[in-house]
TrEMBL record:
Keywords: Transferase
MF-aspect GO terms: glycosyltransferase activity
UniProt-listed Gene3D superfamilies: Glycogen Phosphorylase B
InterPro entries: Glyco_trans_1
Domain Glycosyl transferase family: 166-325
Record keyword Mitochondrion present: no
One Pfam family this sequence matches: Glycos_transf_1
Name used for this protein in its record: Glycosyl transferase group 1
Amino acid sequence: MDIGIVQPELIYLRGAEKQVCKLSHHLTKMGHDVTIYTFEKKENYGFDSSLENVNIVSLDTRWFISSIFSLNHFRWVHLIKKLSSKLGDHDIINAHNHPAQWISKFTDIPTVWMCNEPYYRDNFIDNYYSANIQFTLPISHVIEKIIKNRYPQTKLETIGSGADLERDIKHIHNDYFDLIFVGPLHPKKRQLDIVKAFSLIKNDIKNVRLHFVGGTVDAYSNHIKKSMISLADKNGLNIFFYDSISNEELYSLYDVADISVFVPESEPWGIFPLETILGGIPTIISDQCGVKDILPDDHPVVETGNIKQLADKILEVKNNYDEYKNKTLQTSKTITENYSWESYSKRMETIFNKIIE
């Protein structure tokens, strides 16, 4: 099969970009020809190792120039049209993150939209340019509900995503209780909630180290970081921040992590918590995290924004650590069997075959 994948950018090392690169890697391993079309790709990109046998067509044009989305939209129409003129003779197009799905308006090639997160509100331009999508694949049931309401004309099937580890986690024991969080500093990621929760239990858990990987992305991020540092200092908590780091550096943090906490609002999926579960690290998620769909009913879940509940759950995990670690190891087997990147790619392959038959 000859597959064209459209992704707005390959700049950042986020979950959405990892998903595109891992999918491309496994589709090529399965014998398919894959070309990625993008507005912009960074040289020496962090996920390049997954793209060795993938063709890349880039406009080398900045895809995002304004925080006012409506201004970007008119420009994106022009860029999508320009990108469509470069499409090869593919059997199918797989559009990923917004506004990649607009490519369907400018090609007769069947287009499947892998929807991690649609545009945040109803929009005439978006609805118009998304009208020719043949099939939409919501990443979770939360996104499925939005898609049904926003794009009632499209056929859909909730497909999930994937996760795996590059190597086993070593579980290095030390004198600290280490937490890890991976994701850019942003109000919706609610990293400050984690510092608040540990502040409530500072007398119950000694030698805490809080590791936040992802760095700042805008003025809001810088404000959150200052608030986190101030609160941590006030309560005697050790806090560390890391920008974009290598896989080797990330896995060194996984090696010492005793707990993973990921409690965002409106999170479509969550590759990071799946990775820590795969590594046998007890992991707490929020009730607005999409991966809740695939985890056991007794997995540690807290209400988004409920600091007291989060603090209590962290303490419960700490005080019953072996029990939670064993549960995590059991859950990791299910994820390995059903939600590896290879499994995700095979599900996508099945959908593609269905569309072009």
